[in-house]
Amino acid sequence: MLIRRQSGFGLLEIMIAVAIIGILASIAYPSYQSQVERSRRTDATTSLLALAQMQERIMATCGEYATASVTDATSCGDALGGGGEGIGLGQADAVSEEGFYSLAVAGDADSYKLTATAQGAQVNDEDCQTFELTELGVKSGGVLIDLNTLEDNDCW
């Protein structure tokens, strides 16, 4: 009589495989999330650099930086006096291109400070929640401790 041996996996082998997969996933997922947050930071930097470029164009054309909202300025009077509902400089909304940062423009005729603040899913980025760029090209970024203090990290 021929005895056939069954092949396949038993319950114990499957449970060990599931446990190993669970351990690997618990290690890999936080690292993946951190990498995703770091890659989203480019949304802030590219948005701020685009706004800075527009400010420099206005300075070159009009002799001073825009001080108010400008969405569809066609002259220096429009650019310097404001018009429209956007945050300024040809951008109609106050959100970065991919929507992970809210944008703000502050300043006067001789200077400006552009700010990108994390919103939505990017708020979980504990190292770089706020990015700033000035007319001098000074870049800073980190966690906003209070309205006037930025704990600077290497976000750029």
TrEMBL record:
<protein>
    <submittedName>
        <fullName>Type IV pilin protein</fullName>
    </submittedName>
</protein>
<dbReference type="InterPro" id="IPR012902">
    <property type="entry name" value="N_methyl_site"/>
</dbReference>
<feature type="transmembrane region" description="Helical">
    <location>
        <begin position="12"/>
        <end position="32"/>
    </location>
</feature>
<dbReference type="Pfam" id="PF16732">
    <property type="entry name" value="ComP_DUS"/>
</dbReference>
<dbReference type="InterPro" id="IPR031982">
    <property type="entry name" value="PilE-like"/>
</dbReference>
<dbReference type="InterPro" id="IPR045584">
    <property type="entry name" value="Pilin-like"/>
</dbReference>
<dbReference type="GO" id="GO:0043683">
    <property type="term" value="P:type IV pilus assembly"/>
</dbReference>
<keyword id="KW-0472">Membrane</keyword>
<keyword id="KW-1133">Transmembrane helix</keyword>
<keyword id="KW-0812">Transmembrane</keyword>
<dbReference type="Pfam" id="PF07963">
    <property type="entry name" value="N_methyl"/>
</dbReference>
